[in-house]
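<goal> How does this chain fold?
<body> The protein record starts here
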Amino acid sequence: MQEAFTLLSPPLKGLLQETGISAPTPPQAEAIPFIVQGENVLVIAPTGSGKTEAALLPLIDKMVQDGNRQGISLLYITPLRALNRDLLKRLQVWSAKLGFTVEVRHGDTPAVDRRRMAGRPPDLLITTPETLQAILPGRRMRQHLRHVKAVVVDEVHELAGDRRGVQLTVGLERLREARPEGFQRVGLSATVGNPEEISRFLGGSEPVRIVQIPLGKDTRYKIEYPPPGEEDQELARRLYTAPEAAARLALVSDLVEAHDSTLIFVNSRVNAEMLGSKFNMMDQKIMVHHGSLPKEERVRAEEAFKARQIKGLVCTSTLELGIDIGSVDLVVQYMSPRQVNSLVQRVGRSGHSLTRTSQGVLVSVSTEDLLESIGVIELAKEGRLEPTIIHHGALDVLAHQIAGLLMDSEGSVSFTHIKQVLSRAFPYSRLEDAELEKVVEFMRKMGYLKRDDQHLYRTSRTRLYYYENLSMIPDERRYPVIDLTNQQSVGILGEEFMLTMAHVGLNFIVKGRVWQMKQITDDGKVYVLPVNDPTAAIPGWDGQILPVPGTLAVRVGEYRKQIDRLLDEHKARAPVVEKFSRIWPADPYGVRRVVEEIETHRATGAPVPTNDRVLIEGFDRYIIIHTHFGDVLNFTLGEVIEELFRRQGLVRMWWWDSYRILYEMTADTADLDLEDLFLKQVFGVDEPVLGGACHGVLHRHFPWELQMKQIAERFGALSRGRLMYGGAMKELQVRFRLTPIYDETIREAQVERADFEGVKKIFKQIKEQNMEVRFFRSRDKPTPLAYHILYRHVEAFSTKSETSKHWTRMSRRR
């Protein structure tokens, strides 16, 4: 272990001694020798394992030993400005001791600082992917970038899954054009499910050595499903909520009180505000942290938590990454984290070092949520993380990077050279000439370039298009919320909430407090005053909850199959509860409720849906297809089935979740032959008919207007952030039908939202009888497992709050 540090120079060894670091951590011991040798390295290790130092110690050592430093020697790229802030604080201590300069540059860097850096660049520049795009074409900054010896990409797993990462991969190849002799690449990543792909994402056409440290850190998980007691009845009345919710809030409150520092992770900003407001009503010193709060509020929450002024912080994925908030004793996950990657990242924030135990408590809100949490924990222990899905061939990014290559040049670039540079980047390694040609021709028609048979040329519009579209993050209208009492910003409201719910006099929640809208100005500012109203609406910010992947849904189906089999064997509940209470990390009450639900479901006479059994249930006007396929596959299957039913006019509207598809039919299901309907007209169709249905779904249902608008903005075909409604949005499909904008919308849908190959596989399994399909008609009431989706979407099964109405609006319906 000690050998890695022996490879460093005396000044670096002295610095380590001064800071009390005597021995390398496993990532440092494994990675430093390869980095010293100049290899490209991807370091994959758990949170708090010293990945940053593993990269920077040898690279800074090389840099300070170089007596002839010019320009920028080392580039450090992070996905978040907050990470830049934290890293700068740490490196300023090193720079003072070792004699190098370090600065941060991002979109908010003042012009005077940018000019100073252009004249006198730092040895080490910390920046973001967007700022790299901004400085690559600059004459003076490009000259400084010619001296870059190494690039570190932090949180590479976070960037690999979206367009920002695709843009960065081409940016690195453009940097390589500025420095033909090349540079060393080092990536730092949390544990991922597809390390080989992430290494290719980092290295492009260059080899990358993977240094992977296993999840050897001691992690303890516990699932709580608290039953409501008498004291929770009173709390529920005080908080205007259900006793079950009050029991959960009391549990979380007690956990916070029992520890010095607790992060409470939730899956959405809506849930963050809901919990924050309830804790505020309970007089708990717990703050809220999410992306729709102003930067000043987020920093204030981070600093208050780090200084122990508060003991708890409710947060979304904004704190999954390595933002410095000090040590964390406990992580509470409110509701299932829905993916293994999220669980590992979030719970890994507690005991933020390899020698301390990470502790995570998962608070379940339903029996299904509890089963899902068990599945996430078991998959995490098995090391079965979800693969990061890389966007191959994103056409909007392609257009922007073609403009970037023109900006980097003297004014013209050969078609062949552009193809060579782009193809070195992993997301474009399979780029076809026809795709490139179509995008180039579209850019020519837009006036963003000129061309002849061999070359592309800059135009007067190339620069404006390039710099207006540096960010791949969608521009969505945001409405700042301003407190009239002090004129300070307290939050940001999303466009959908403002269009559907906002009006003067509305009470709503931001920052865990209730506010009343007093004025909405023409320029989009919302002026508010604090009020007391525990029944206030919650802002419906845009943004998707993580989809439950098929691997996790299948695991839940396996659990249900095991319970079903053991109930058959024992003919009693108690031994089944006792068995699973021993092997599952859940409290006995929660386990009993799970087994009871399956037992009650069986008592109706209905078969139990499992990982290899689909149950199709008919009740009143509703058909519930019980599956264990996960969100994306269920959504795609739901669309395909509706497409097959389309000509018959059978479906009025439909919804889906991770474990079911719900159709409201135009006729009572008692009048339908469900077996004939599904076994012949759905699962019995031949391959050409199924292929036609998939094609129909893709082109009739998937070019969603909002996604097409955002893609058109990135292509420069629409002004960014432009407000569009109703008819204007619907016209986009016609307007852009034969353009790369339409093609990119379809490509994005197939990557992020649809799984047609999965649907075809299910149809094949059913035809070959490798997947059982059973039918059941509920008479007086639906089966217990059907309630999980019915109470969310059907008026007869729930009294809808504003939040549930919001979710209904967000559901896909016909």
Observations:
- The domain at 3-212 is CATH 3.40.50.300 (Rossmann fold).
- The longest strand covers residues 513-520.
- The chain has five domains: 3-212, 219-381, 395-468, 478-530, 607-702+754-810.
